[in-house]
Amino acid sequence: MTDVQKAPYSKRLFAFFADLILAGILTTGIYFVMSVVLRVDSYNDTYRTIISSYEREYGVTFGMTAEEYGKLSEEEKTNYKNAVDAANADEEANKAIRTSYTISFCIFASGIVLSVLILEFVIPIFTKDGRSLGKLLFGLGVMRGSCIRISKPVLFVRNVIGKGVFETALPAVIILTVFNNVTGIFGVILLVIFIIAEIVSLIRSGGSAMLHDVLADTVVVDWASQRIFKDMEERREYEEKQKRSAAEHDPYQDSTGSDGSGNK
Questions:
Q1: Mean pLDDT value across residues 95-117
Q2: Nearest to 222 by CA among 211, 210, 208
């Protein structure tokens, strides 16, 4: 069949969650390995050591609740404030915690991209049909809008750049930076833009195309019923055969006379 047999949205959703779970497991593993290699804990240890020194010097405990703080005397509150100001002004502590956050964010984003690269690019190339493990599990396929098999460059644009970078890594990093009060309202605005763009893409496509599909001109189809061609030449040959076959079996074609009435 040369018409597009779009995959049911429910199957796409299940395949997405299957791939998401696998990506989460792989990302966690990558994050753990890279954090050990880049010695993230050493920067955290440096920060905690410095903070602990100010706690001992001023005789306070940082991180107390509002209720605990409210029970302090005015003198103790003043002492606590002086300890906080001294700790915040410590350049070595600030440098250590900034470095820790920066490396952690980079590792997290890189882990997502690497996991997507493996699950959505390397494995689909290995299976030779462009399908991820989730799509294999739920009988889905991916092709160009013209029913042509996707090439490696298109697969990279769709799954790594579109899905991995723009739809997963960037939003995840933005959420983390907003949560840690790094980007503030600017991060929230960017996140809203991402969500709106995704919703618009789904609405315009009738729920069948997300941003990565729009970016690569691809569509997710039912693998069992969809015919996917190697190239346009193969599709043209198939369509010509279909036309000839239809013409040969057309019961109304004029083959008995020249006057078009069927009389000899």
A1: 87
A2: 208
